[in-house]
Amino acid sequence: MFRFSSLPPLSLYVHLPWCVRKCPYCDFNSHALRDELPQNEYVAALLRDLEHDLPRVWGRTVHSVFLGGGTPSLFDPEHIDRLLSGIRARLPLAPLAEITLEANPGTAELERFRAFREAGVNRLSIGIQSFDDAKLSALGRIHGSTEALKAARAARDAGFDNFNLDLMFGLPGQTLSQALSDINTAIGAAPTHLSVYQLTIEPNTRFASNPPANLPGDDTLWDMQQAIQRLLAASGYHQYEVSAYAQPGRECSHNLNYWRFGDYLGIGAGAHAKLTDPSGIARQWKQKHPAAYLAAAGTKDAIGGESRLTRNQAVGEFMMNALRLTTGFDKSLFDERTGLPIGQIVSQLEIAQSRGLIEEDVVHLRPTSLGQRYLNDLVPLFL
Three-state SS for 245? Predict the structure, then answer.
């Protein structure tokens, strides 16, 4: 039986699934835009979807909103304004709620960013990936280095004092010096947050069926990761999660809620939700294809599937998320977010400690530096 002393913080995820072109490494629910973007219809569908889900979160305050995709910045600012106004009219947002919009440099303009800011967006996440034109071409991106730098500058000039740049390393043919050059260029753009991911070949992507040549080997990848960590730390960006680096106080609130096993409502094509109630933890996801979602939004037919977590699943999902945090978590958080006593995982913790993968004191539990490096070996102990 689950026993919750309180409900976790609640976030809202909104999925806008269209992009100009599907990148060959992307395994997200994104769809290349072939016709005119159905902005009016989709925003109306999102608000119908939200209204249908409201009974599941009555009385709860939303602490962060994340507009992800796809490329949400394809939507005109007036439609983002209508969407956010509709969300505020239906859900209580915390006074300082973080509201993030993902943007692509190929759709970045100063006045457009200013209009997003006026609509209520207070954080941008810009998908740069690289500042090297040859590497961007290999990744199938629609922008070049000039557009990437322009987008970062436009974010600052538009009044965003909190914005993230996404970068990748381990790109085809990339050397250590090229990877560090990307990071130095990003630091020069003065973002408050950087997400730095290793390129991975995911199933059901074009790269999976036709892998790029000359990918760096494991030793080079490890050298890149260590050098990037050192450079960012020396530049005032502390690593707080596997791929996330932030200036002090600029950690992404929305993603921290995921990693701390908070709750989130999901609206939009393929959006996922995780919600806690006195009887346990429920997961739900919406129809993935935009056409199917548009036809069903606001009805039970928009639900693509749902399930309730078992005790073992709740333990596994909590640890899979919380162990991504470099500082780990207070042990009391395990009880609060899973509804289970931490004594349930004593044997697994003993194994992890014996292998040098975690360390703990009376209050706190965290992955060691070895555990952070071999997270793929640590997490399965709890699954």
Answer: strand
pLDDT for position 223: 97
Q: Is the pTM of this model over 0.85?
A: yes
Rounded Cα distance between 224 and 198, Å, is 9
Choose among 71, 25, 374: nearest CA to 171: 25
Position 259, amino acid: W
Rounded CA separation 231/226 (Å): 9
Dist. CA 324–CA 330, nearest whole Å: 14
Q: How far is Cα 127 from Cα 159, in angstroms, rounded to an integer? A: 19
CB 182 within 8 A of CB 131: yes
CB 232 within 8 A of CB 225: no
Fold entry, domain 310-383: Arc Repressor Mutant, subunit A (1.10.10)
Would you kindly state where each structural domain of the chain is located, as residue ranges? Answer: 10-257, 310-383
* Token pair listed for 260: 């701390």
C-beta atoms surrounding 6 within 10 Å: 8
- Over residues 246-287, the pLDDT tens digits come to 999 999 999 999 999 999 999 999 999 999 999 999 999 999
| Cα separation, 94 vs 300, whole angstroms | 28
Q: Count CB neighbours of 17 within 10 A.
A: 23
Domain 10-257 has CATH 3.20.20.70: yes
Crossing angle (nearest 10°) for helices 110-119 and 145-157: 40
Sign of torsion over alpha carbons 117, 120, 122, 128 = negative
Residue type, 238: H
Give the DSSP letter string of 367-378: E-HHHHHTHHHH
Please state the φ and ψ torsions of residue 28, each to the nearest 5 degrees: -75, 165
Determine if the peptide bond prior to 70 is cis (ω within 30°).
Answer: yes
DSSP symbol at 302? G
Digit-coded pLDDT (tens) for 58-78 = 999 999 999 999 999 999 999
